[in-house]
Amino acid sequence: MIELEGVPELIDPVMICAFEGWNDAGDAASTAVGHLDREWKGEVFASLDAEDYYDFQVNRPTVALEGGVRKITWPTTRLSVVRAETGEKSRDLVLVRGIEPSMRWRSFCNEILGYAHELGVEMVVILGALLGDTPHTRPVPVSGVTSDSDLARSLDLEETRYEGPTGIVGVLQEACAHAGVPAVSLWAAVPHYVSQPPNPKATLALLNRLEDLISVRIPLGELTEDSRAWQLGVDQLAAEDSEVAEYVQSLEEARDTAELPEASGEAIAREFERYLRRRDGQPGPGGHATESGGLAEGREGGPGGPGAPYLRDPATGHGRPRRPSPKDEVANDAEDTGAAEEDAKDPDDAQGAQGGEGQDVSRRDESGTERGGDGDEGSGSGR
């Protein structure tokens, strides 16, 4: 029997789940849920009985001294609730964080769904991370999938067509479908050649996609700086090994070629819509997450700002220029419009400037490096 003593009535609750193990490459998914729990000071209200679902020879308990007293902590799955304050609007999140169970997966899922039913959860979002052939120098691909065709259309998600071995993420999503609970899985792709945890860049990508999905602005704390440090560290390691650098370059070329058709189509429109949704809001502490691991709104010349470099080429060690964001696009359009209006007011001055700044603007438009960039920095489209 499910006991919910002390849990208040929730506001538009969404359940966010992540499980350590096979579904959690680089610990990206479990770290994302742990971050939400810390930032919003979650309160644990329930935990599943460890003996029902875990093999303690696989997931061993730990022992620690607390005030001179030995205490054993058993591997389990815990549920906590946090209230996400987003200006005038508030929303409650039910956070489920644990370890992929060793046994009785169907009973495990039924118990979680029992809590979802009692709490009035409107949707279940399950976070996962997988190893893939993706370069660490590019935005982290995040795919959103669901087995509900109506939900796929309304939330612009992929309808899952996967066939093969699955983990608790796939089993829980299927259990939600049978129970009539809307469910979505968000998967981040982690470079297989840097699979060891943590991977803060993948965690940021998941939080960014989650923020768009549930319309809640997520404070980042130190995740942004952690992501930059991770990026710099992998760049340096790749630059020191010619074989790794060559392999990363081949992954970059394959990724850029695959995404080229999107550079002038739906991906740019999607990024511009995201910018319009966010431009009137205030970012959380440290800004808000982007799938490239940076800030969507940075200071001039600072990290993530218009003067910041994008990523270092692991083969040459040279920095690449940052790809312009939709905000830069709007600013450039406004600047060009203002210049055109000034030329119209004084045609003689405009004609006299043909050999100066006017040529720079012309070259910028033709090359596209300042106006359009060479791709969609934040699309993060998954497979």
Automatic annotation (TrEMBL):
Acidic residues biased stretches: 331-346
Signal sequence region: none
Pfam families: PAC2
Region annotation Disordered: where it falls in the sequence: 277-383
Basic and acidic residues biased stretches: 360-374
InterPro entries: Proteasome_assmbl_chaperone_2, PSMG2_sf
The protein's name in its UniProt record: Carboxylate--amine ligase
